[in-house]
Amino acid sequence: MSDRIFGVFGILLALGFAISAFAIEESFLSDAVGPKAFPLIIAAVLALSSAVIALRPDPEPHWPDFGRIAEIAAAVVVMVLYAQLLPELGFVIATALAAAFLGWRLGSGPLGALMTGIGTSVGIYVIFHLVLGLSLARGPFGF
Amino acid sequence: MDMFSNLADGFAIALTFQNLGLALLGCFLGTVMGALPGLGPSNGVAILIPLAFTLGLDATPALILLTSVYYGAMYGGRISSILLNIPGDEPAMMTCLDGYPMAKKGMAGEALSLSGVASFVGAFLATWGLILLAPQLVKIALLFGPAEYFALFALAFMTLGGVSSTNQAKSAFAAALGLGLAMVGVDTQTGVPRFTFGEVHLYDGLDFLVAIVGLFALSEVFIFLEERHGKSDAEGRSFKIGRLTPPLSMLKACTPTMLRTSLLGFLAGVLPGAGASLGSFISYSMEKRLVDKEGTFGTGDPRGVAAPEAGNNAAAGGALVPMLALGVPGSGTTAVLLAVLLALNITPGPLLFTNNPDVVWGLIAALFIANFMLLAMNIPMVGLFTRLLLIPPRVLMPIVAMVSFVGIYGISGSSFDLMVMIGFGVMGWGLRKLDVPLVPIILGTLLGNAMENNLRRAITIDDGNWLTLVDSPLSIGLWVVAITGFLLPVVVGRRVKAQMHRRRDTEGSIGD
Question: Is B410 close to A134, i.e. CB distance below 8 A?
Fold first, then answer.
């Protein structure tokens, strides 16, 4: 069933891709092929392979139960927050929080997770910023 | 001899303190990454790309660092195969078959050192193969026009799925998806924006480094989160290594095996779409058929350890041949290395050998040096690496995720790229669950624009005649190989793949 849904999704994706390809405005100075042809070929391959996937599905993959999916969703939310808050909080604090969350969700105890977070953050800060001179996001405290 | 003077120049480049230091660092990190389950050659190299950029390295030192990681990972994968019966990366899966039984018999030290020697022999011979074969391939490639290049790219995509995927439709899907992603941005020939949906950040196109790190490294983090596989597999086990030198009689018995499988592995590596996993698989299968008269393979036969290790290291060297000579990588890790070269504004391919001989020969010399370093590192110091197996993923994976973020942020300094990377991470996780291979996606985003440019150039030269694509014997030959390579696995591939996929380390692993 997963593959059938995936295949249908692929066909829709190919359709959307083809529609946006047709919407490309062509410049009056164009080569013989133009900017639309190759994207349209790709859309065709995408649609064809999606149709085959939908018609001849593989055995069902092992999907995790709802709890584990929620786990991944939570991790994604934390990562998105991390990306957004990085310039506000500064590298060290944001990274320590995000790494601690991931460590906690992977099964570390609260203290262990905190240590992982701080260790990762400070370790990366020392190696990448102080030693290698990479400029990282600066927060209100300058680190 | 031209070759030897080139090689001598290469050694002059490689033998600087900086390059030797980078090779040493790369070998060490590579072995660590190979040894740790969850990190293999392709995501290991992917995570380290930003490091190479932050160090402000030129092309040659950057390549030396990253190919040392690549070779090192091939060495390191065997350690957890032998000690834990869990391959550290996909190419090392065949080493479990005889390596673990040997360790159970109390011969772990012999197995580790023998496989170290086999890795060395494989990689050493393959580096010579690279020197001999790549310039020949360059001579052929110089005959290629745009139409032939278009056919060659098509060949790379059509054969790539052959071994790495169980379903050709899914590898075709992956290739088309990657090519489609490459189309995002301003069209290079006419200057019109495509698929940008008005988002200014997308005018430059998607950065393939962002895609690679997201697909390879972050998706691994999600897989571990999903399985909550936070404990180290080595927890609660104690390793008895024993003596760290293989007896001479064992080495002697394995020498013919190592030589044969090095050759076979190298050839498997050169073929597009095969890579090191296939190299180790066919090496093991062939040796089993050839020398296993008493049926000892699978019960701890030393030759069963030497064969896949020589095979996968030789394949790693072989896979560099098409990447350097044609600019078309045949495996996941070489695709990542290609991304590095492209990001450094160096286009691999036949012109690389004439325009940047220092890059090519410096790299080759560094491979020889790295190989000796790895041999030295992997036999006496193997105890150190076995201790690293005790690092649990609940500590390792946050580090992997954060290093990925830092690397991408360090290159671009934009939160937008981080968001794109997270998107690719989620996509990579979903696609791995659905058994869609990730390597064609990467290859598509890397080669998409070059492929389109060659198509348009070829047709424009011939005044809009599409038949020009199949106009020369060379391009017809390439198309025939491409189509055969795509259809053959559908017909005969199932059996081979079923055997290969019986022993995979984790669900939907990335490959090499």
Answer: yes
